[in-house]
Amino acid sequence: MISTTAAYLAVSNNLGRQQAATAAQGDVKSATNYYLANIGKVTSVSQFVNNYQLFSYAMKAFGLSDMTYAKGLMTKVLNGGVSSSTALANTLSDPRYKAFATAFNFAANGASATTTTAATTGTTAKYIEQTLEDNQAKTNQGVSNALYFSRHASSITSVYGLLADSTMLGVVETAFGISSTLGQSDIDTQAALLTKVVPIADLQDSTKVAKIIKRYTAQYDVANATTASNVLLADTSDATTSILDAANGVGTTYAADSVLNLFDSSSSTQSGVSSSLLLSLAKLNKGG
Predict the structure, then answer these.
(1) Residue 110 carries which DSSP code?
(2) pTM value?
(3) Which of 1, 121, 200, 272 has the fewest CB atoms within 10 Å distance of its CB?
(4) CA distance 80 to 254
(5) What gap in Å lies between CA 153 and CA 30, rounded to an integer?
(6) Residues of the chain with pLDDT under 50
(7) What is the dihedral of CA 184, 156, 12, 7, to 10 degrees?
(8) Where are the alpha helices (DSSP H) in 81-185?
């Protein structure tokens, strides 16, 4: 079976061709044609959210399909616009809401909000990209997640935005061997750990984003091909290193960017971390 890394590169290195093929799919082409022919006729927030065919298309384009039912919330998001710091779209940690309200800016543009490039061809481009990712998920969820991460990384401007996006967070957790049980901690503890692992500035750097994705796709295959050991504290270049070995002083060399170093930044050895803590962490299995 082709590796997730190879499968991702096969798509990302030929992205234009892949997008064109996706756009040509019968159902995608039909939905897009309807959207472009009718979105400009919408002149109010109420009309928009109550036209399921148009609204669901737009929501999918911005990765918000699972919130299509929440017409009340989305009405408030759209009515509030994005110009005020207290607008709902600006106070929600998930950046997708702000992106949606920016594209369909009824608060600023009124009845002409649906005629802008962002609301028309900008939205159809996003819909095609989202559909491409959905198609990839049918054969390899890791490829879909990696494409999503690549597309959305630069839009994350705070650690809370990263925490709010489950797909983005999942990629980081897998790439750096962070147990998903981190979510049981309070939000500030989660934010502090993630900031150390992935500085938000790194998400604005395409080279660093590519390195995170490479790491993610490799670790995704490890996690899904075998019943791997918990690698929360292990050197991520050797996912089979046992956390229990570490507790007993065996195999105590860790990668420079291993999560272990968050506990003791002065050393790459076991110094400063008790065996009891290591044994407790060993019980935190990936996936909760």
Answers:
(1) G
(2) 0.73
(3) 1
(4) 48
(5) 30
(6) 226-288
(7) 0
(8) 88-91, 95-103, 106-109, 121-137, 141-152, 159-164, 166-175
